[in-house]
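Sequence in, structure out. Go.
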Amino acid sequence: MPEKNKAIVRRHYAAPEEAYWMFFTAFNAKDAEAWAGVMSYPHVRVPALGSPRYFETPEAYVSRSSWERMEATGWVRTQGIEPTRLHESADKVHLAGGWTRYNAADEPIISNRVAYILTRLDGSWGIQARFGVDSFMEGENVEDSAATATDLVERYLEALDALDFADCARLSIYPFTQVGIGEVQQFQDEAALERWLAAIPRRRTTKRDVRASQTGTDGVNVAVTATFESGQAEHALFLVAKREGRWGIAGRSVIGI
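Output:
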């Protein structure tokens, strides 16, 4: 834990992938300060299974960092997978990545697929948010989950076009997380999300590409590219999760292009 009132110094990362790989290097070294230093703040991890974990500052991140639970499973290291850029702009990138945890015999314990939302703040890239599918198994048939999630996102976007913000709110699960650049918003119920959506100017879409980019049995990251009547376009990433038997949108991040 850092000394009281001592600020954690972030290293400079010139590319999103640099921060992504340092995430695993620091984690394997059990270096809480270095691990906290690869994030943009406020930072949030949104799991498909469970509640979001929100960190306002790197000091808060360090204070809640622990390896004991994982070590109890036999964990000795985590290996990240080669990341792929789903969407990008000058200051924000949606990076499809993930990891496998290994024990001392170099046997896999568990794997996950995660979308890392990286932002560039003060000239340096950091991980603003993580959307984890949390139910990933290599080779498992997840076609039904992918179809359910993409259909739900299509319905959400159709409701946005129709200005039916109440339906958008009903299609979500809570807390609902919206990730910006240097900003994370969390909405605790349908009424709060509906009010926020209604306050934002809307543009009707003329074309949408909606596809599952990472899929588990109970969580799916859905990538969207939408073109508007004005000719402008945007990318979006949705985390769709199945909780207590119900599918809903748990998180969203948008990149204007």
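Check: The chain has seven helices and 13 strands. The longest helix spans residues 143-161.
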